From TrEMBL:
Transmembrane segments: none annotated. It is an enzyme of class 4 (lyase). Its EC number is 4.1.2.27. Keywords: Lyase, Pyridoxal phosphate, Transferase. Gene3D superfamilies: 6.10.140.2150, Aspartate Aminotransferase, domain 1 (3.90.1150.10), Type I PLP-dependent aspartate aminotransferase-like (Major domain) (3.40.640.10). The modification N6-(pyridoxal phosphate)lysine is found at K227. Its cofactor is pyridoxal 5'-phosphate. This is sphinganine-1-phosphate aldolase. Belongs to the group II decarboxylase family. Sphingosine-1-phosphate lyase subfamily. GO terms for cellular component: endoplasmic reticulum; membrane.
Length: 449
């Protein structure tokens, strides 16, 4: 257990049994009809209110007068829909505040780090927006020193600032201070993507990377219940600073023959069973349960960082000793550890293949730079699994170096030169960048064959 990077976040049998019972009870429920399913409306609101409380408790002691009553949100089908809605909301708001831009059909801009989730690109494609990418620092966080120059360069067309807490590739959290300052100075909405950090963030021991509405000028925030909220796929929550801003994501149709129509999210009908499962999951785990899981996972991240950076000794058959050949990317503290070789002529993809085929560890391959990342969960953060992984990593490195020359001769060694790309969502896969688009298209087609 625990050999998969992310993907499966728990194996709690009692919780799975509870989720199955709840799903069956609410299987016919639909949030589109709150009059028919009043309990679903209550559970829907419960998830939003609990998420608001968690993302306001951090830092409230420093701002005790902060009023959380304005904060609100919606549940969605997952992190992607939460991000799509955050972008749509910001676009609609900015057009309302700047009507000439809409009259001219001016494409609005999203300023975000290179490490921001792919769903922001999807949003820009769907909603006729443009992504302006902030380069990363050597610590693999957004280079916020360039933020104001990007805003000025785009002359009033920037409708959204985006930061991650943490990002998917490296598990690092973008610094809040400059995003906060620029959002206040220019009145630009700021979205914090907490889909991955979700219900770990409130319990982080490093307060500098804890996002909170009580201390930041954050306009919206996304957090996934189906990751570290431990619910079934797919439920996420999109929080908003107030109801006026949230309304910009709503769809309203008053002239339809079928009557007045409105929906808070992209979908019309929604599977109420998933919201019910998420609510009962939250009640089952409770605040102390989430806190315990959060501490265990973040402690495991720290342990794994130390080992990968300074705890590896590889002894080859010919007597050669290789000390600490890997390096951590950035300074992750939440749930993800990303690493690669210290030298560019090595291949972390080949190392990943050995880890998967020989030891069953399926880590996620990254690109730019080529690397591997391990998203730790309740399954993988156990002492037993961490110790096992460390041993398997050393054995994999030994086999890697022993077979390196042989693999090069056979053409199996995939160099870290940017010619290969990771296929998100399929652990351990790599494809050639030149045909990556067609490979993705074919892969998606095959899913429905």
């Amino acid at each position: 257990m625990g050999k998969l990077s992310g993907g499966i976040y728990h194996n709690d049998t009692a919780l799975i049994n509870l989720q199955s019972i709840v799903f069956k009870k609410f299987i016919l429920g639909n949030q589109l009809h709150p009059d028919c399913f009043p309990m679903l409306r209550y559970l829907d609101a419960f998830l939003v209110k609990q998420s608001v409380a968690l993302y306001c408790s951090m830092g409230k002691e420093n701002n005790p007068s902060y009023d959380i009553s304005d904060l609100c949100g919606v549940t969605t089908s997952g992190g992607t829909e939460s991000i799509l809605l955050a972008c749509l909301c910001a676009r609609n708001y900015w057009y309302q505040m700047n009507p000439l831009l809409k009259t001219r059909n001016q494409k609005l801009k999203i300023i975000m780090p290179e490490s921001a989730h792919a769903a922001f690109y999807k949003a820009s494609s769907y909603f006729n927006m443009e992504c302006c990418l902030l380069p990363l620092t050597n610590d693999y966080v957004a280079n916020v020193n360039l933020l104001e120059s990007y805003i000025k360069k785009n002359k009033g067309t920037v409708c959204l600032l985006v930061s991650s807490a943490p990002n998917f590739p490296y598990g690092t959290t973008d610094p809040f201070a400059m995003f906060n300052s620029m959002s206040l100075k220019y009145g630009i909405p700021w979205h914090i993507d907490c889909c991955l950090g979700s219900y770990l963030n409130p319990f982080l021991q490093d307060t500098s990377i804890k996002p909170s509405f009580a201390t930041l000028n954050c306009w919206s925030l996304s957090t996934d219940l189906h990751k570290y909220g431990y619910s079934a796929k797919g439920v996420s929550v999109l929080l908003s600073r107030n109801k006026n801003y949230r309304a910009y994501q709503y769809y309203k149709q008053t002239n339809w023959n079928g009557g007045l129509y409105g929906s808070p999210t992209l979908a019309g009908s929604r599977p109420g069973a998933l919201v019910a499962v998420a609510a009962f999951t939250m009640l089952h785990i409770g605040l102390n349960g989430y806190k315990k899981c959060g501490f265990e996972i973040s402690d495991s991240v720290i342990e794994l960082k130390k080992f990968v950076s300074n705890g590896i000794t590889v002894k080859l058959e010919n007597g050669t000793i290789i000390q600490n050949p890997l390096k951590i990317l950035g300074d992750p503290k939440v749930c993800v550890v990303a690493f690669t070789f210290k030298y560019s002529d090595e291949s972390c993809y080949f190392l990943g293949d050995i880890l998967a085929k020989k030891f069953g560890y399926h880590l996620s391959p990254l690109q730019k730079p080529a690397a591997l990342h391990y998203a730790l969960t309740r399954l993988s953060c156990t002492k037993e699994n961490i110790e096992r992984f460390e041993k398997c990593l050393i054995e994999s490195l030994k086999e890697y170096y022993e077979k390196k020359l042989e693999a090069k001769e056979k053409g199996e060694l995939k160099q870290n030169d940017g010619d290969t790309a990771a296929l998100y969502g399929v652990a351990g896969s790599t494809v050639t960048a030149g045909v990556a688009g067609k490979v993705i298209e074919t892969f998606l087609d095959v899913l429905y064959e």
